Amino acid sequence: MESFSADWLALREPADHAARSPALTARIADRLRARPGRHAVDLAAGSGSNVRYLLPRLPDVAHWTLVDYDAALLAQAWRLVTPVAREAGVGFDVRQGDLRALETLPLDGCGLVTASALLDLVSAAWLQAFAARCRGAGVDVLCTLSYDGRITCTPPDEGDDAVRALVNQHQRTDKGFGAALGPEATPAAVEAFEAAGFAVHTAESDWVLDAAHQELQRQLLAGWAGAARELAPGETARIDAWLARRLAQVDALASRIVVGHVDLLAIAP
Ligand SMILES: C[S@@+](CC[C@H](N)C(=O)[O-])C[C@H]1O[C@@H](n2cnc3c(N)ncnc32)[C@H](O)[C@@H]1O
Question: Probe ligand 1: pick from 68, 146, 181, max atoms within 8 Å of CB?
Fold first, then answer.
């Protein structure tokens, strides 16, 4: 099963928040204004980044429940969400749970299910069952920051295409839900939610990483190199050389990396 460190989630948070689609957030805020008092459930909440972004922007949500299977991340979420919820006068709780047991999701009285950086980890079968579960509960769904397979590094390097292809192949390996959708997550989600009767809206939410994101760039590049080595051990020397060139560009404040993501809002019929 995949685990994520609190440090990594904290490092990516500013890029995540800057990348998100304000238009989709505004659209769901309008929808909730017409149906106030609903609860919202954030799946794969990690240390609560998604809720800390959404809670002040969705003032008509009466209570947030954060679900994750990682107790340490939920403890961090409790610490970090508490001041935000107190300031807004909104209740919240955290629940340790496994998303693979879809029937256990606490959707009673819920108007909105949210998740960020989740859909690329799940399988096509899970996604279809998730759409059916949300349809049954009559909830809207906002899933943000799903990786879509695009990586553009500037200045370009001769090794970029090969590493990107390996990264995208690695994205499709099992992350605990069966073969992951990886870059296919958003098209698969559009299809699953439309088939379940939802009205679906999408918007690009790319990370744009420049000299202000040096450490995030370094860790991202190292992570990509690790994924590439895992799938192509025979290419290790070439991958290491690529990583060294790219890290030198980061150190020289000359590197810019765009990582393609998509936000998706599905409105229940
Ligand atoms: C990429 S992190 C995203 C965390 C958070 N949403 C954010 O944007 O910072 C993915 C999260 O999914 C959680 N996760 C992965 N598989 C899970 C499962 N089967 N059940 C519950 N949580 C899971 C991990 O613990 C991690 O917190």
Answer: 68
Please state the atom number of ligand 1 nearest to the C-alpha of residue 70.
25
Q: How confident is the model over 85-103, as a mean pLDDT?
A: 97
The answer, yes or no, to whether any atom of ligand 1 lies below 6 A from the CB of 2, is yes
Whether this prediction's pTM lies above 0.90 is answered by yes
C-alpha torsion angle, residues 246, 247, 253, 254 (rounded to 10) = -10
State the distance from the centre of ligand 1 to the C-alpha of 97, rounded, in angstroms.
11
C-beta contacts of 244-251 below 8 A and 24+ residues apart: 245/157, 245/159, 246/153, 246/157, 246/221, 247/218, 247/221, 249/155, 250/214, 250/217, 250/218, 250/221, 251/214
Beta bridge partners of 114: 42, 142
Rounded Cα gap, residues 229 and 102, in angstroms: 34
- The pLDDT tens digits for 197-255 are 999 999 999 999 999 999 999 999 999 999 999 999 999 999 999 999 999 999 999 99
Which tokens belong to 212? 């202000």
Residue closest to 221 by CA, chosen among 164, 174, 182:
164
Which pLDDT band, with edges at 50, 70 and 90, does 109 fall under?
confident
- Does the N-terminal peptide bond of residue 14 adopt cis geometry, omega within 30 degrees of 0? no
Name the token pair of 173.
């390996």
Domains of the chain and CATH, by start:
6-149+177-207+260-267 (3.40.50.150)
Closest C-alpha residue for ligand 1 atom 14: 44
